[in-house]
Design goal:
The protein is of the alpha/beta class and 405 residues long. The chain is built from seven helices and 26 strands. Helix 3 packs parallel to helix 6. The protein binds adenosine monophosphate and magnesium ion.
Length: 405
């Protein structure tokens, strides 16, 4: 049996090679940039107006106020967005300008329409402005030749917008691995089947597929396999054809019908570790098979999900070029006592809340590895280190955040 840290190290150093590919920008959401993005233009590419109003020389309206308006004469043209002004703004003149339109020569600022009153040949200005007010300068957002985003950045909707404004229709990203999910067990039945004593509906394929889907990557959910070596070999081999990492659930413990480990060794998979000093998820096994990897996840529904969080997800994230493998972690204080057996790491399913900048947590209920609702209600996984025994109210431990708190 190895420790959680050793197991995580083996998984992360396993050497699943990142693959880089080019994608249309809208297909890259949630993936990681595999290239630095260098701007080929200044953005914006010309000085322009941030408001609907009048392009002016700020010096001409110095001292203007409600009780002391200053009159400016309308120049002979106006500038809608998209038009290049032909004339310049001379002293004492102004030019109607719309948001996004190029600033005409001579003007150094834009007075908002709301601060003026217009007649047929002139405007009254009721406020003075600073030089540069309501002007968006060339290159103020992005300078030509600058590095805007770096390899390793996670692609967000904002990044996709910027890529579009830089004229980049495609980007190079880390291609996520395809993850296969294969549940095993004679007692496991389909979700449409009638539940009778001795049977359990397959929840693992669904929770695992959902965990993969939550990462924004592709999953393949295969049909269940029974506890039968010949059939397991067939199903596992078929499944491996279609994925880079295969997640098996069930049959990896030491029971008489736990055939997964022996079966994988029979087909020539190399065992990288088996059994981790943790609860839930102790029977976890990890194998290499040719260029692919296989997790033998325990069958218990909570163990499956916790092992995904602690081992599978970090491995996928690493291969996707991300710098952060595990979920964000905080130090949080428990609002209640927890019964806890010393010996291995315990992962408790908890609800985390934040009060006055501090994190607190309480249990989601019964903590057995078969109590899937305790996982379903959790927004955090509290990590009780090996050898600490019962956890007293008020103690602080590391908690991984699964989602919003
Ligand atoms: P095993 O690891 O095969 O000994 O299974 C441990 C427990 O997990 C047993 O109670 C199984 O019935 C249950 N189990 C196994 N596979 C699944 C599954 N796909 N969905 C839900 N429960 C499962
Ligand atoms: Mg079983």
């Amino acid at each position: 049996m190895i420790s959680v840290e050793e197991a995580q190290k083996i998984v992360l150093n396993s050497g699943l090679k990142p693959i880089i590919k080019k994608l249309p920008i809208l297909e890259s959401l949630g993936l990681t940039l595999a290239e630095d993005i260098v701007s080929s233009d200044d953005i914006p590419v010309y000085d322009n107006s941030a408001m609907d109003g009048y392009a002016v020389r700020s010096i001409d309206i110095k001292g203007a106020e409600k009780s002391y308006p200053i009159r400016l004469v309308l120049a002979g043209e106006d500038i809608p967005a998209g038009k290049i002004p032909k004339s310049k703004v001379n002293p004492g003149f102004c030019m109607p300008i719309m948001t996004g339109a190029p600033l005409p020569e001579g003007a150094d600022s834009v007075i908002m329409k709301e601060d003026t009153q217009r007649d047929t040949i002139s405007i009254m200005v009721f406020r003075e402005i600073e030089k540069g007010e309501n002007v968006r300068y060339r290159g103020e957002d992005i300078k030509k030749s600058s590095i805007v985003f770096k390899r390793g950045d996670n692609i967000s909707p904002g990044i996709i917008g910027v890529l579009a404004s830089l004229g980049k229709s495609e980007v190079r990203v880390f291609d996520p691995p395809v993850i296969g999910v294969l549940a095993t067990g004679d007692e496991v039945i389909g979700i449409d089947e009638k539940l009778v004593p001795g049977k359990v509906r397959d929840s693992n394929s669904y929770s695992l597929s959902a965990q993969i889907k939550e990462m924004g990557i592709q999953y393949k959910k295969f049909d269940r396999a029974p506890d039968d070596e010949a059939l397991l070999i067939k199903k596992i081999k078929q499944s491996l054809e279609e994925c880079d990492i295969l997640l098996l659930s069930g049959g990896i413990s030491i029971g008489d019908y736990d055939l997964v480990k022996d079966t994988l060794e029979t087909i020539g998979a190399e065992l990288l570790f088996w059994r981790v000093n943790q609860k839930p998820g102790k029977p976890l096994a990890f194998f290499k098979y040719k260029e692919k990897y296989i997790f033998g996840l325990p069958g218990n529904p909570v163990s499956v999900m916790i092992c995904f969080e602690m081992y599978v997800r970090p491995m996928i994230r690493k291969s996707m070029g991300s710098g952060k493998f595990l979920r964000p972690e905080v130090e949080a204080e428990t609002l209640q006592d927890f019964k806890n057996k010393a010996g291995g790491v315990n992962f408790a399913r908890v609800v985390v809340e934040k009060k006055d900048g501090q994190y607190f947590f309480k249990s989601t209920g019964m903590q057995g590895s078969g109590i899937l609702t305790s996982m379903a209600r959790a927004n955090g996984i509290a990590c009780f280190p090996a050898n600490i025994g019962d956890v007293k109210k008020g103690s602080k431990v590391k908690v991984y955040l699964l989602g919003e708190i």
